[in-house]
Amino acid sequence: MTDQTKDNFSGYFPTWCPGCGNFGIWAAIKAAFEKLAFNRENIAVVFGIGCSGNMNDFLWVNSFHALHGRAIPNAIGIKIANHKMPVIVVAGDGDCYGEGGNHLIHAARGNHDITVIVHDNRVYGLTTGQVAPTAIKGFKSKSTPTGVIEIPLNPIALAITQGATFVAQGFSADITHLTNLIVQGIKHKGFSLINILQPCVSFNPLTTYNWYRERIYKLENQNHDISNMTKALEKSFELEEKIPIGIIYQIDRPVYTDSLPQLKDTILRDVNLDIDMNEFIAEFV
Ligand code: SF4
To answer: Which residues sit opposite 277 in a β-bridge?
Structure first.
């Protein structure tokens, strides 16, 4: 990986389509890491598969590119191995809500202390335009030429009801606001989901920059009570006419590793398990 720009976290310059919302998310993630004074070797970022996952090459950090839909379980494994280290997932809506939807539910109810950043462009971009779980009903794609029949998956409501303790929504074109959300999500102790509304300029002609700009409003200006689950769920169902961005829900609850007495005074990585790995591996050769 080469450091090609002046910030501390740029890898290779992105190959995304010109105008893609991924650029704004990339900028916000790097700005958030700068604000948090992260050292690239003391954090872990796990990427899913998709255009968003290609950020693995564009972000210069300690990272892992997981199988499709498996970014979250890999992140949980890393977190349990070293629960002192910030662990962040970067994935798309297809990867995280489609193939990996099951993992999202169980990570939320375990309140695993990871931050999941989802590029929600409502389409499979890398494979050139098939329908994704958050696509709006009626959306015409390569795989749904007469329009999507199903209603869209609601990631905000799903995360809140399954036990996530920080749930936020951002917009890829509002980089300052998004940076702040990412900083707060990473600082939060517990499972945090940041769903980012992101135009795909090549394969989603419906949810464009202008489509979002006409609908988005900021919760910070609304006196929204982020600790009130009922109010948060009301906001989560504002999907098309008006769309909230900001922190939608945040509460405190013990995280998964708090309940592991073995990890009270140490991290798992440093525990001497006294296992002869050669003997173990020999069983498989
Ligand atoms: Fe971005 Fe869509 Fe191009 Fe992928 S296909 S890089 S999401 S504009």
So the answer is: none
147 contacts 210 by C-beta, under 8 angstroms: no
Question: What is the spatial distance between Cα 76 and Cα 89, in angstroms, rounded to a whole number?
Answer: 10
Q: Is 55 in the pocket of ligand 1 (CB under 6 A)?
A: no
Q: Kindly state if the Cβ of 105 falls inside 6 Å of ligand 1.
A: no
For CA atoms 10, 11, 12, 16, give the dihedral sign.
negative
CA of 125 to the centre of ligand 1 (A): 5
Q: Is the CB of 124 under 6 A from ligand 1?
A: no
pLDDT tens across the length of the chain (285 residues): 444 456 899 999 999 999 999 999 999 999 999 999 999 999 999 999 999 999 999 999 999 999 999 999 999 999 999 999 999 999 999 999 999 999 999 999 999 999 999 999 999 999 999 999 999 999 999 999 999 999 999 999 999 999 999 999 999 999 999 999 999 999 999 999 999 999 999 999 999 999 999 999 999 999 999 999 999 999 999 999 999 999 999 999 999 999 999 999 999 999 887 888 888 888 888
* Half-sphere CA count of 1, side-chain side, radius 13 A: 17
88 lines ligand 1 (CB under 6 A): no
Q: Report DSSP state, residue 61.
A: S
Reference 118, options 107, 129, 130; nearest CA is 107
Nearest CA to ligand 1 atom 6: 16
